[in-house]
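Progress against Task 2.4 (sequence-to-structure conversion) is shown through the following example record, which the project officer requested during the mid-term review.
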Amino acid sequence: MSKFEAKKRVLFLMTGSIACYKACQVVSRLVQAGHDVRVVASPAALEFVGAATLEGLSGRPVLSDLWERGRAMDHIHLIRDADLVLAAPATANFINRIAQGLGDDLLTTLFLAHDFKKPFLIAPAMNTTMYLHPATQSSLQKLKGMGVRILETASGVLACGETGFGKLLEPDLILREVLDAFGGEAAGAGAARPSAVPPLKVLITAGGTRERIDDVRVLTNTSTGRSGARLADLLSGLGMEVTLLRAESAVPATAAEVREKTFVGFDDLAETLRRSLQEERFTHVVQMAAVSDYRLERVLLNGREMKSAKTPSGGELTLEFKPAPKLLPELRSWSANKDIRVVGFKLTSRADKAGEKSAVERVLAASDVVVHNDQARIDDARGVHPYTIHTKDREVPLAGFNEMSGWLASWMMEKENS
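Structure tokens generated for the chain above:
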């Protein structure tokens, strides 16, 4: 093995941007190529991608706090041990602060502790106006003068909806820059590059079904589909091919790479889900949609069945329901990939331990993994939304969405590579 092909130690700095999802793919690809990656993430970055995700991708603990007990010298040791430092995504705030020599958190002190004997790469990501602002451009030029290698941004549709420069480079281009920095002229010929791994294909359902009463009235639930959209963005950022099958009224994904389909009621969801699974070989299906347990059979007004477009006001209205079939047990039989892995979600409402156990076991009978939470433990006003992961042989309590989504992402990749 040549010096260029040997295992390298990469210190990966991540600052707070929606592009953190895309940067996760770079971490994953570097690890797949055999390099040792250590991630240092700002608190803002961990709002976009949880520590569990980054730890699962890198196989190493994630550092964030300069003042963590027993780690006062990390900014010295981490820099000296690294063969290369990559900051991606690098926000305008981070770029302007290090250009001014500030060092009041772990990421900025890492820059100040760097002696420029080894490559230091920065991949900016920000709004076009922020990127082109004289202060930012001046800082970038100043950093170049110090010896920092600044990667150009891409042009395209940004997270804010505007079009222009400031978009984080695609993972393949960032990887090429890293390999060039490792190997110099050799990188163009015979350089060891990450092997092409077929991407995981994930189908996610999200949002609530709506059952029609008449042309103006429906029965539905309070599901927004927000968690499904966030999971779709995260998995897409990790390089997976993601299809989000969401309710028409649900929150859409923000990542442009996520394909979307929509549904309205139970029948619509079931048919679109069946057809999607039959037409494509998905590796995973994540059933997050809040599906009605009942379907409306008849609408009666004063004992007589109503068939008008709009139910008249007044009188005694009776709605008759029949149980809806369960979709989860059908997913494997519908799938063109009989080895598809199934993730089910279960929300209970103030259930006791026995009730929770029974509910989870019913879902687990048709799933590889069940993500469970109970209404009594959720406090959205305080940002409290814990989950428990259930598999056939273990339970994993997790504090919130970032931890839960990170566990799922790591599980998907581990299972695929095992």
